[in-house]
Specification:
Layout (H helix, E strand, L loop, with lengths): L1 E5 L15 E5 L14 H10 L2 E5 L5 H17 L4 E4 L2 H10 L3 E4 L23 E5 L2 E5 L6 H8 L6 H9 L4 E5 L14 E6 L1 E6 L4 E2 L2 E5 L11 E6 L4 E6 L2 E5 L4 H6 L3 E7 L4
Parallel strand pairs: 1-2, 1-16, 2-3, 3-4, 4-5, 8-9, 9-16
Antiparallel strand pairs: 6-7, 10-15, 11-12, 13-14, 14-15
Length: 277
């Protein structure tokens, strides 16, 4: 199992790299936080000294973001001509595939996982009858087991089907990023296919602009120098899991990943995201 770690280049020379074989850098939700070339020099020095592999991760892109990213990748190719590029943008994926030397990877926002944290109850029947109120009226909810068809649907990935996997094979794409969801994950496990499991944060939604902490009706003024502190969390008492607001996205945390790796032999890489208190 390859161990990878996602770093935040906004820390500059204060980067701390734990023991690992690979470093992820870039940003997976905000194109404004993608690095420019000068931002990467401390990381490049560390990677050469410690012989670490690098993976560049990108978000959905506007036309301006696409131009910025491709310009950066042209520079990156001169130093790391065979670097992995994780993309959640179909336009950038097409560009990367046509570069030949770069290694395209399908990002976890593209594969179509069911990401709702309430699915932690999948497979668990309600043991007691419950009553809920809708429009001022009470309704009884009776205990009921989920069907196998529903379980299969909620643990599948809509993009990872036989026909699309054939298309990816023709494009020499064989690695896919996966979120560590509470429910099981069904992957296409065939020889030559590889999956990277991201731990512990599972994305719930992405905002166009950063919310003002947990006030989602107000957006935060965009100041790149202050974005490092744009993190909040609160406890969801009903489901017992923490919800995190990190930059312009919401996540929940799931640190248990053994079940996914056991049932999916194609998962050969763990990508650990930086944690915070």
């Amino acid at each position: 199992m390859e161990i990878a770690y996602m770093v935040d280049l906004r820390k500059g020379n204060k980067l701390e790299i734990p023991p690992c074989k690979r470093i992820y850098f870039g940003h997976e939700t905000c194109e404004k936080l993608l690095p420019v070339w000068d931002d990467c020099q401390p990381l490049m020095d560390i990677s050469f000294k410690q012989n670490l592999e690098l993976t560049f991760i990108t978000p959905f892109l506007t036309d301006r973001g696409f131009e910025k990213t491709t310009k950066f990748l042209e520079q990156l190719k001169t130093v790391k001509p065979t670097i992995e590029i994780v993309t959640s943008d179909w336009g950038l994926l097409n560009w990367v595939v046509n570069q030949k030397s770069l290694i395209p990877v399908i990002g976890r926002f593209q594969i179509g996982q069911q990401l709702d944290f309430r699915l932690m109850r999948l497979g668990k029947a309600d043991r007691e009858e419950r009553t809920i109120m809708v429009d001022g009226k009470f309704f009884r909810l009776l205990p009921k087991e989920q069907t196998m068809a529903l379980k299969d649907h909620l643990s599948s990935c809509t993009l990872l089907k036989e026909n699309t996997m054939e298309m990816f094979a023709q494009l020499s794409i064989n690695r896919f990023e996966v979120s560590n969801t509470f429910q099981s994950v069904q992957l296409v496990n065939k020889e030559g296919l590889h999956y990277s499991l991201h731990v512990p944060y599972v994305p719930l939604t992405i905002f166009r602009s950063c919310p003002d902490n947990l006030n989602f009706k107000e957006k935060r003024s965009c100041n790149i120098n202050r974005c490092l502190n744009n993190r909040s969390k609160w406890l969801n008492e009903t489901y017992g899991c923490d919800i995190y607001c990190i930059d312009n996205a919401l996540y929940y945390s799931n640190t248990c990943f053994y079940g996914h790796t056991k049932s999916n032999p194609g998962i050969d890489r763990l990508v650990f995201h930086e944690t915070f208190n």
